[in-house]
Amino acid sequence: MTAIADPRAPRAAVRRSGPNLEKWGWIYMRASGVLLVVLIFGHLFVNLMLGEGIHGIDFGFVAGKLADPLWQWWDVLMLWLALIHGANGMRTIVNDYVSHEGTRKVLVWALWLSAGFLILLGTLVVFTFDPCIPNLTDGSVLTEICNAQS
């Protein structure tokens, strides 16, 4: 009979005092997953099922949504939850499969820095988006709104 080799021994888990970050990361993944399902399907329903569906999505549609504080916060919440959820999942994978301590630290730092940068950039885009910056002269409703504001 062939014996199956023992699995690699996990790194010695040193219990530090203070909050259990792994437990809170696990709880965050479950809670954010449920919220993301609601946010994403709401986003898809409004964009694809209401109005003209996919044929109605254009610059004016996006500009109209981003002018509404409800949709600004909806999109920002979806952005934050998704990026933190994804970075935390990738952190777990790195912790599971990268055995060299230095490499693991570099990868985890790179994950959190890139997630933080994308969160900052995405939040700025949502809250500072101005549909009137392009020189609109196509006679659309958006052109009339922008001309009325100036």
TrEMBL record:
Coiled coil: none
InterPro entries, alphabetized: SQR/QFR_C/D, SuccDH_FuR_B_TM-su
Localization of this protein: Membrane
Signal peptide region: none
Any one Gene Ontology cellular component term annotated for this protein: membrane
Family matches, as Gene3D superfamilies: Fumarate reductase/succinate dehydrogenase, transmembrane subunit
One Gene Ontology molecular-function label: metal ion binding
Transmembrane region(s): 25-50, 70-94, 106-129
Protein name: Succinate dehydrogenase/Fumarate reductase transmembrane subunit
Organism: Microbacterium terrae
UniProt lineage: Bacteria, Bacillati, Actinomycetota, Actinomycetes, Micrococcales
